């Protein structure tokens, strides 16, 4: 039986949803539409924007740093997505087994995710430069050092967070299916790849989505760890856009056009990844 309170909520639901909807319009939709408009303009501030057509988008291809940042970001995202998900799944599988101190170690693995990206960048810069100093080098000596430095930092930060998601998925697996596989004589590798992983596809979908989008959007760790050095060779897309808008006067429109292209790339890749992994969920 529907209560009076339930009837009131059903009747005036729009009144409860209105504050959040207004905040969403002001905080996301309006700036997003304005950003698309500014990508077609030459401007110093929003008030003096002047329409210039596709000139800003032509400027993207004339700027060689954008293509390099895109390739660098793609390589970084692929590497970190694989490493984070494989290690997070392995750690989660280990912690779902009966072992002393599992709860404590889960907390320890998760803690790096609570630290801000800028702080992590500075801390790991000190650590990695201290190690490389023995060979007379630093993170900004070579793009490869900056690349793997970023990989180590992000993996160390994100593995614990993805581990929590995988633990939740592993703990919700139907025990009768696992017991049936054991009774049928399935070996541990067969159980893992033919039973557990297919059943874990919803968790894999979520973790893969988070790591892929997080890799493309990485900014603060890149800024603090290498700041794009040497010579902007370890500069990722978000930092490239930032440096274009705030580091090159007169190129604000080009930077905004880069941001729009950046959004399209990330959205397309995220939708493709989500489609591929969710289709495996159906098959499972």
Automatic annotation (TrEMBL):
Transmembrane segments: 12-38, 66-95, 107-127, 147-170, 191-212, 253-272
Record GO cellular component, one term: plasma membrane
Key words, A-Z: Cell membrane, Membrane, Transmembrane, Transmembrane helix, Transport
Recorded family membership: Belongs to the binding-protein-dependent transport system permease family.
Full protein name: ABC transmembrane type-1 domain-containing protein
Species: Scardovia wiggsiae F0424
Localization in the cell: Cell membrane
Biological process terms in GO annotation: transmembrane transport
Every ABC transmembrane type-1 domain range: 70-273
Membrane topology (UniProt): Multi-pass membrane protein
């Amino acid at each position: 039986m529907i209560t009076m309170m339930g009837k009131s909520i059903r009747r005036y639901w729009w009144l409860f949803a209105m504050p959040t909807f207004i905040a969403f319009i002001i905080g996301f939709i309006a700036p997003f539409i304005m950003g698309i408009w500014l990508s077609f303009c030459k401007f110093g501030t929003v008030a003096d924007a002047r329409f210039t057509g596709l000139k800003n988008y032509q400027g993207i291809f004339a700027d060689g740093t954008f293509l390099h940042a895109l390739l660098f970001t793609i390589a970084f995202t692929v590497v970190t997505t694989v490493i984070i998900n494989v290690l997070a799944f392995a750690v989660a599988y280990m912690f779902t087994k009966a072992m002393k101190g599992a709860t404590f170690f889960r907390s320890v693995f998760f803690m790096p995710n609570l630290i801000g990206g800028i702080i992590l960048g500075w801390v790991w810069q000190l650590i990695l430069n201290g190690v490389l100093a023995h060979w007379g080098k630093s993170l900004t000596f070579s793009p490869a050092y900056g690349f793997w430095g970023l990989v180590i930092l992000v993996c160390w930060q994100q593995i614990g967070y993805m581990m929590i998601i995988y633990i939740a998925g592993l703990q919700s697996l139907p025990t009768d299916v696992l017991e049936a596989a054991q009774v049928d004589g399935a070996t541990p590798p067969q159980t893992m790849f033919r039973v557990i992983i297919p059943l874990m596809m919803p968790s894999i979908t979520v973790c893969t989505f988070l790591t892929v989008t997080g890799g493309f959007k990485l900014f603060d760790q890149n800024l603090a760890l290498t700041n794009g050095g040497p010579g902007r060779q370890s500069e990722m897309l978000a930092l490239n856009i930032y440096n274009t808008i705030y580091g090159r006067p007169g190129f604000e429109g080009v930077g905004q056009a880069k941001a729009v292209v950046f959004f399209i790339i990330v959205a397309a890749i995220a939708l493709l990844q989500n489609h591929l992994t969710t289709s495996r969920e159906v098959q499972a």
